[in-house]
Amino acid sequence: MAKATKTKAVHPAERRGLAEALGDMRWWAVAATAGFVAYMATSYALFFFGATWQVPLFVGCTVGLVAAAPLQAMLLAPSVTVLSMALIPPLVPEAGSGPLEYGLALALSLAAAAAVAYTRAALTGSNRRIAGTAIAVGLVVWILANLWAPLLSAGLPVNAYGTLTAPSVRAIPQPGGIAADDVIYRRVFVSMHQGRPYYESFRDAWTGQPAPSGVMGFRLPTLYWLWGLLPPDPFAIIYLYLALCSVGVISAAFITGQLVGVRFAPLAAVTMASYVLGAGITLYAVYVDLPAMSIALAGIALFVRFTLTGSRRALWAAAGVITLAALTREILIYLVVLAALSALLERPGKRLSSATPWLASLGVFTIGYAAHALTARAFLSADSGTLSYMGGSAAFAASALTTFSNTMNGHGASLALLFLAGVVAAFAAQRRTGWPFAGFALAALLLPVMAMLRLGNVALDTEGNQINYWGMLVVPLALSLWPAWALLLQTQRSRERS
Question: Cα separation of 473 and 457, whole Å?
């Protein structure tokens, strides 16, 4: 008769200990994604100075903050860093890919992940939350410092990263010749600083070529009035651009932080900052679109706060800020309309009170835009040209999701994937906010892109390629939402813990 073999039983406490050390298995995918995107958004241009050591440190800190357990962070951070370096070599010359760089990346990412993860693990309760918040805030400040550093240290990023140099911003051709839109806008800046009012300056900036064909061709004066408060040096436009876009970066962090936890906030901030740099190192830094959308993100962050807390003050503030954004770039009124319609997804007793601030916003915008239209109409000249907005197509819509991706490893697919992740996150947000905000976010992402199948106004980049800069009016929202896709993998307990 065969002798029965004995197997050593594993004590339940040992199984729990291993599970806690490795973390929730679903969280491996979340933490690995966080590390990969952190590398993708920083290695190509954002962390230009000292990229050899900044990138792995940032990846390690990000993974350490997001990971479910220290061991998970220590295994993932160096693995993701080295794999990313092999698959996506950085553009930055000093961030090479030799043995020394790989060794340094391993050591720095491992050390950063261990420091952050073990700091959080050593604390409990409110102390852990405070530490997590402090680390997240530190990472956002780190991101903003790198966004501003090239400008403050060298005037602008080197020519290899774009065509926008300090001399090109300061060189304002005089009216009388055909010029691109960015030159026209800078002419307005110079004219206003010579003491002329906005509408007259905008009209005369088009001298020598067909003037705006109608009121839609006349930009709202809001941003230009701010330009009038700047020093007379046209380069000051770039500082205001970065200041307003920094508001957008911080707002993106607040949106994600409220939806899925403060640990994820730096992920939204870093992708938004990379996008800001992508637009900023081209001549599109003088455009109104991205600064206006950055203002709108601040309003959307307040909208999320209202959704989670029921604060009426936050709701009115959200409506006011988004209205200011729409009065800066009129197309953004679509956000106010969608927010008003989202009130229909509230309980019957709350619909009117939820819609009231947005209806008031529509009234304010209508009055403001009517005043603008009446004033602009008096400045339309007889030689006004024609401008068609019926040039949309599938290629035009796709271009919106890939333009300004040059700082995300130089490939449009990176930005397009983040946009799709933002759509998924908008759907997942209903687990945290319910359908009123989630429905608003989904519509705000999808409807504009669908409209671009029919509506469009193709622009040319500095190399003569057709692009769709209208993506600046929708892509930043996706970049503010995308980390919330993790809500699909979180259990109720982990959502409460976040």
Answer: 14
Widest CA span in the chain: 108
| The two structure tokens encoding residue 56 | 């792995």
* Calpha distance 117→63 (Å, rounded): 8
Q: How many CB atoms lie within 10 A of CB 163?
A: 13
Q: What distances in angstroms separate CA 315 from CA 308, 312, 334, 337, 349, one per listed residue?
A: 11, 5, 17, 14, 17
The token pair that represents 404 in the structure block: 């300004």
d(CA 283, CA 166): 11
- Judged by DSSP in three states, 453 sits in coil
Give residue-wise pLDDT tens across range 422-462. 999 999 999 999 999 999 999 999 999 999 998 887 676 65
Residue spans per domain, the chain: 14-153, 160-228
Q: Is there a contact between 67 and 113 (Cβ–Cβ < 8 Å)?
A: yes
Q: How far is CA 472 from CA 276, 292, 404, in A?
A: 9, 9, 9
Kindly report the pTM of this predicted structure.
0.91
Sequence-distant contacts of 117-123: CB under 8 A, at least 24 apart: 117/64, 117/65, 117/67, 117/69, 117/70, 117/72, 117/73, 117/74, 118/70, 120/64, 120/65, 121/69, 121/70
What type of residue sits at position 214?
G
Percentage above 90 pLDDT, the chain: 61
HSE of 163, CA atoms in CB hemisphere, 13 A:
9
162: nearest Cα among 406, 403, 399? 406
Pairing of strands 459-460, 466-467: antiparallel
The label of the residue with tokens 């009124």 reads 333
Q: How far apart are the first and last CA of the chain?
A: 57
- 15 has a pLDDT exceeding 80: no
Q: Decide if pLDDT at 266 tops 50.
A: yes
51-94: per-residue pLDDT in tens?
788 999 999 999 999 998 899 999 999 999 999 988 877 655 55
Counting every residue written for the chain, the total comes to 498
In angstroms, the CA 243 to CA 290 distance is 11
For residue 343, pLDDT over 60 is answered with: yes
Cβ burial of 7 (10 Å; 0-12, 13-18, 19+) is exposed
Query: pLDDT tens, 476-493?
Result: 999 999 999 999 886 544
Is 90 in contact with 77 (CB distance < 8 Å)?
A: no
